[in-house]
Design a protein that fits this description.
With 268 residues, the chain is mainly α. Helix content is 59%, strand content 7%. It is built from 11 helices and 6 strands. The strands form 2 sheets. Strands 1-2-3 form a 3-stranded antiparallel beta sheet, with no helix packed on it. β1 and β2 form a beta hairpin. α1 crosses α3, α5 runs antiparallel to α6 and α6 runs parallel beside α8. The protein is elongated, with a radius of gyration of 23 Å. The C terminus is likely disordered.
Length: 268
Amino acid sequence: MKFEIMGSLRIGDEQGSYAVLTARKMEILLATLLIKAEEVVSIDQLIEEIWGSNPPRCAGAALHVYVSQLRKFLKRPGRDDSPIVTRAPGYTFRLGPDELDLHEFQRLLGHGRALARAGKFEEAVTSLEGALALWRGPVLGDLRDGPMINGFACWLGEIRLECVELLVSSNLMLDRHEELIGWLYSLIAEHPLHEKFYQQLMLALYRSSRRADALKVYQTAREQLMTELGLEPCGPLRELQKCILAADDAEIDHHAARRGWRVPVVRD
């Protein structure tokens, strides 16, 4: 079986067909067990995740019924064992190799990170694009009411941002600056307080002989940060703005080199 959580929760079979749970509480139960796969999740934790801070008196009995139903739903032809195992003080979910899309994402991201560090940027781009292609939408859709799933989704969102940053950086190292401009504008619209994307966009614009536009991006970043947080841009962003104002290619090269981005000299 294939369990996919990088989007709405769904379960795939060997024929490529997908099934979904229609009962929300059973969805939350399965999602919680999957994100804590191979770990014991206590009954109290599952009750809080499913019902919040005010569970019904019969929550324990209801949870037992949901576990039983979920075991039946996940029953594999020709096998009597279940991936859901009772382990005091609760349950654990046993995963087979390559059964969870998250693990494939982590493998591709780790491979892409290693390739980028080795200077193999073309191969890094391929691996990182493969990782991002696994995302089908918000992690676990609308199941994020409980603390465990919500915390997991926030963590995974940060890992996705790292993957995107590394993909942009690898493309910058391949001098694909003009191709990145539109995507970086959309990333900033999606993450208006993420200063790294402003830096990368300013570099991409500067490399494309669009110095004035690069400086406008800095002003946009400053206005956004001041309005939302009352903060000036971070040191690296201010430093880059000063270098672009001075058209100091040597300093821009130095700034980019510290972040793994090669910057060719721009000549007007």
